Amino acid sequence: MAVGIFDSGLGGLTVLDAVEKRLPDVPFVYYGDNAHAPYGVRDADDIFALTCAGVERLWAEGCDLVVLACNTASAAALKRMQETWVPEDKRVLGVFVPLIEALTERQWGDNSAPREVAVKHVALFATPATVASRAFQRELAFRAIGVDVEAQPCAGVVDAIELGDEILAEALVRSHVESLKRRMPNPEAAVLGCTHYPLVEGAFRAALGPGVKVFSQPGLVAESLADYLARRPGMLGPGRRARFLTTGDPENVSSKATQFLRRPIRFEAA
Q: For position 108, what pLDDT does the model report?
């Protein structure tokens, strides 16, 4: 009954923490491609190949359902994977749709025509590859009309978080928010379009100010996954054991993961 959680590095641990709390009886296998992080500066073909390799490893662990807890992979690879690569007995889901459903106040599976929504001015903070893909805007257009999205590529933030440099990460966040506000002075909502960003969510909130509603992914993804599994319990795979896998150095990744989640985490070589 295992479910796979894939990420380019450590950011997906924010999603893992939320889904474990929401679904305590489900064993989750986490795969971090730390050896190749960050994905946000790679091209689409590279991201596709690396993501497919990680998903195949999770399938080998008995995870028929894999969640891409990586916005860059969701933006640059997921559509191509679903259309050309994923077999009929497997599923790969992304993290954009739950976020957009929350932003547009839609229920899961609502496929009605796009309509006007309350929020008109949205700031999107994401990696350069996610911004370049325009995947967020494409998915949003399926559900809402009349929404102005200003996207800010947040170069360097993921690297700083992966290195454990909180001071640098927060300084970069402030700089990126200031840059976006020069183009959109009064956003009504802000989307943290990278699963690393909840680790510095406080810095985003402080820089944006109290009048901006911030949408962060972990809790939204957890609720969406719980709903998905309630509707499709057959997608729980045959795996029985929770594991943490990494393409990086297990000892180093374990140390950083333990700091992030504030509980002991032990990674194994993928």
A: 63
Indicate if 248 and 225 belong to the same structural domain: yes
In whole angstroms, give the CA distance from residue 268 to residue 257. Answer: 12
- Residue 110 pLDDT > 80, yes or no? no
What is the set of active-site residues?
70, 194
Which CATH number covers residue 141? 3.40.50.1860
pLDDT at 107: 74
Domain that holds residue 70: 3-94+218-269
Rounded alpha-carbon distances, angstroms, from residue 149 to 112, 231, 264, 265? 21, 32, 39, 37
- Taking only the tens place, the pLDDT of each residue in 188-231 is 999 999 999 999 999 999 999 999 999 999 999 999 999 999 99
58-77: pLDDT as tens digits: 999 999 999 999 999 999 99
Mean pLDDT of the chain: 94
Residue (of 144, 121, 107) closest to 190 by Cα position: 121
Residue 65 shares a structural domain with residue 172: no
Where is the domain boundary, 216, 231, 246?
216
* Residue 139 amino acid letter: E
Same domain for 127 and 190, yes or no, is yes
Question: What is the count of structural domains for the chain?
Answer: 2
Which residues, listed in sequence order, are joined to residue 246 by a DSSP beta bridge? 32, 269
The pTM for the full model equals 0.91
